Request: fold
Amino acid sequence: MKSDEMDAVFAALASEPRRRILDILKKEPGCNVSRVCGFFDIGRIAVMKHLAALESANLVVSEKAGRERRLWFNPVPIHMIYDRWTTEFSDYWAGRLARMKYRLENAPVPLARAKGGARG
Amino acid sequence: MKSDEMDAVFAALASEPRRRILDILKKEPGCNVSRVCGFFDIGRIAVMKHLAALESANLVVSEKAGRERRLWFNPVPIHMIYDRWTTEFSDYWAGRLARMKYRLENAPVPLARAKGGARG
DNA sequence: CCGATATGTCACCTTCCGGTGACTTATAAG
DNA sequence: CTTATAAGTCACCGGAAGGTGACATATCGG
Reply:
């Protein structure tokens, strides 16, 4: 997966309405654009732009059926990221994570550990 | 994990320079801002803005040590998303994925099945 | 103190994003 | 044909993102 493809996927996911669209398409696979619009207060053009972002990230695929466009959620890009994370962060997931969580969540800005005690 | 926290995490990850910063901090935990800047062609202010985005997503934590600011990668938000995906997409990961991959990767825009075949 | 280094802050610019309305095209239905 | 519906395209606007330089602040070293 190339870097700009990752950009597109993460950017697409970085928006609550777009994540919601994915939920809708999971529940109603093959529904059309108007149907998706029905779940939102924003206008149709805005929804179509969100769909365009999702399609360019390959998180949504569509096919034209008559005058409608039918939409499906595509889990493949998310699965690829998931797989990558499995290997990329396996060290952290096992054991090292506990220490990090201690360091990071309990001691946000603990000034104390400056340099070698060279304080003056 | 709240929705706007997700927004922040995904938005932070939707940028190659910011993902690269995470890689740097994994390899050099505790390094300072200038050190990170050394890996980039863009200016220091731009790097600091990227760091601010990462910190606001809680993907990076820092502590002030003298005149320096030391930086660490925080895997916790990624781990939370990973865990969520495990449950959220487990249906797709198992079996249903194969069918989707067929449908989606071999037939990107298969206009052919529009009206004739009544999809299912 | 004084100079050098590391970082923080501010104003500014350009580009992209998310939203809008107006209009066009394509299909369905009569 | 006509009319209604689904979708696509275009221009526009406000605000946020990503970059810059100039300047301010804090710390280290002598």
DSSP finds six helices and two strands in chain A. The longest helix of chain A spans residues 90-106.
